[in-house]
């Protein structure tokens, strides 16, 4: 995600997921190994048959060929779900080279098409996922019922099988203590809010994921429009809160941001929770031009790179939690210093 | 920070639970997280949506007791994959796409509670869509055929019969 996309000072990414199943095959939950492998081979061969060619080059990765650590890295990059990482029997992911499209095979459902766009591009992500769905459908027959729509393993996905979400960075709404009011309003219009890397209202790094809850009874367009409208409102509120902070408490805001920047540039030990909070401050500083030398993009990258699995992968060893905190601080220092050496932000 | 459960290992999982505004912080190690399991995001065996669903289903079981109009659910079973309604109630997930048909209308209260609706109004796949269309047309033609036979208009009936055969062949080809 090198290109930041529209409204990228607030929206990190937009994602759409479609759940689909083949007719006449038991769901992965009940499938025997032979049946699961049959589904895997059928879907892999369709994926490689050329129907996906117009969406760019893809690689099919079978989970059983990966080490546990490699799987964890894919999970932390949000390219596969934890659920699929555990499905080493016949799970696979068809990944576009730019990592914007990730198609999971034998997760909870036979097929899960995921499209990820940087910034606020939920409509574009839906359009792409819809086209990929059409491509698969030209070669396969999906389980579909005229009343219940697309049939899924879990009744919470039945109908459209669509889960659309936007990942938002909302530090100013958290700082001005408006976040809970807004989030509880969001949950009253059929949307769900989650923190990054875990549930609950205390989100790591002030990142919040807003997604649709209902998949049946509304058309895909209605679901996307509803999410788009609500997210747009939240973006405006966040921007207003930032302006308010800039106007009314600039010194305290500047101090907080620069303090966090100082800690990240010089700390020797940092745990993932503090790192996420400090990175959020620095990202806000970059977006508000309080830290013009920092590229906002570094926040997304570092937040992923400082997760435990990613750290272990990078240093190619089994790290103890203490070592992790040490390596994490080292990695953050390296990345931030690199930017300063390069003479500031490039984007 | 040391794990608050065992007091020995360093804590690696930190999370805050807020229930009805009451805030509780947890700092525990991976071993204790595994033991505690329930309610800890990111921990193995964490509380899932499916256990929640089966809670709703249990409610349905209780609520529908005494209503004998429906088939007793113990014997309700999907013939394709063998999953029983009771099993579905426990795990909150279906075994195959035929389960939806097998459990039929009994699912509607659950689905309505999740989605507030029981009718799909979104995308229709072209393939299955064609079959749905054919099915509807055939039903209409059969009714027509019946009328012609009753009116003893056999020539017209024969034409309709041929149309039905043609549609049935089309349906078989598409499946």
From TrEMBL, chain B:
Q: Which UniProt keywords apply?
A: Coiled coil, Kinase, Transferase
- The UVR domain is annotated at 135-170
The signal sequence is none
Instruction: Please provide, alphabetically and separated by semicolons, the GO molecular function terms listed in this UniProt record.
Output: cadmium ion binding; cobalt ion binding; copper ion binding; kinase activity; zinc ion binding
- List where this protein forms a coiled coil: 131-170
Judging by the UniProt lineage, the source's domain of life is Bacteria
Which Pfam families has this protein been placed in?
UVR
A biological-process GO annotation: stress response to cadmium ion
Q: Which PANTHER family match?
A: PROTEIN-ARGININE KINASE ACTIVATOR PROTEIN (PTHR38430:SF1)
Please give the name of this protein. Answer: Protein-arginine kinase activator protein
The source organism is: Paenibacillus montaniterrae
């Amino acid at each position: 995600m090198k290109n930041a996309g529209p409204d990228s000072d607030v929206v990190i990414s937009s994602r759409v997921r479609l759940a689909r199943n083949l007719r006449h095959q038991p769901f992965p939950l009940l499938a025997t190994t032979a049946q699961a492998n049959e589904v895997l081979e059928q879907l892999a061969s369709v994926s490689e048959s050329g129907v996906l060619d117009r969406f760019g080059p893809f690689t099919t990765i079978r989970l059983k060929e990966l080490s546990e650590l490699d799987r964890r890295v894919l999970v932390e990059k949000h390219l596969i779900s934890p659920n699929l990482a555990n499905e080493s029997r016949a799970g696979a992911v068809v990944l576009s080279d730019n990592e914007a499209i990730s198609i999971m095979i034998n997760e909870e459902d036979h097929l899960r098409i995921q499209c990820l766009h940087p910034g606020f591009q939920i409509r574009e992500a839906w359009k792409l996922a819809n086209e990929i769905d059409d491509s698969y459908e030209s070669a396969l027959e999906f389980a579909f019922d005229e009343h219940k729509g697309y049939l899924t393993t879990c009744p919470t996905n039945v109908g459209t099988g669509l889960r659309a979400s936007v990942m938002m960075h909302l530090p100013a709404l958290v700082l001005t203590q408006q976040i809970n009011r807004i989030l509880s309003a969001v949950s009253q219009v059929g949307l769900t809010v989650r923190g990054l890397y875990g549930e609950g209202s205390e989100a790591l790094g002030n990142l919040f994921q807003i997604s649709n809850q209902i998949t049946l009874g509304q058309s895909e367009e209605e679901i996307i429009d509803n999410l788009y409208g609500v997210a747009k409102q939240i973006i405006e509120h966040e921007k207003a809160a930032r302006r308010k902070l800039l106007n009314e408490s600039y010194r305290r805001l500047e101090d907080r941001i620069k303090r966090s920047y100082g800690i990240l540039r010089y700390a020797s030990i940092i745990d993932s929770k503090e790192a996420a909070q400090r990175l959020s401050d620095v990202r806000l500083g970059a977006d508000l031009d309080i830290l013009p030398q920092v590229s906002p993009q570094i926040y997304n990258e570092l937040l992923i790179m400082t997760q435990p699995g990613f750290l272990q992968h990078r240093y190619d060893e089994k790290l103890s939690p203490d070592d992790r905190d040490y390596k994490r601080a080292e990695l953050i220092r390296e990345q931030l210093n690199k930017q300063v050496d390069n003479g500031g932000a490039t984007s | 920070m040391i794990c608050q459960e065992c007091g020995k290992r360093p804590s690696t999982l930190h999370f805050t639970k807020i229930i009805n505004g009451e805030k509780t912080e947890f700092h525990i190690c991976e071993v204790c997280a595994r033991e505690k399991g329930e309610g800890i995001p990111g921990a193995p065996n964490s509380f899932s949506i499916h256990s929640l669903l089966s809670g709703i289903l249990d409610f349905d079981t209780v609520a529908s007791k005494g209503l004998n109009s429906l088939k007793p659910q113990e014997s309700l079973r999907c013939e394709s994959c063998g999953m029983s309604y009771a099993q579905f109630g426990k795990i909150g997930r279906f075994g195959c796409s035929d389960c939806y048909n097998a459990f039929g209308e009994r699912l509607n209260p659950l689905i309505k509670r999740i989605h507030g609706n029981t009718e799909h109004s979104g995308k229709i796949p072209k393939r299955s869509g064609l079959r749905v269309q054919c099915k509807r047309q055939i039903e209409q033609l059969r009714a027509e055929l019946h009328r012609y036979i009753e009116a003893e208009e056999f020539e017209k009936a024969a034409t309709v019969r041929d149309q039905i055969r043609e549609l049935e062949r089309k349906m078989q080809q598409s499946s």
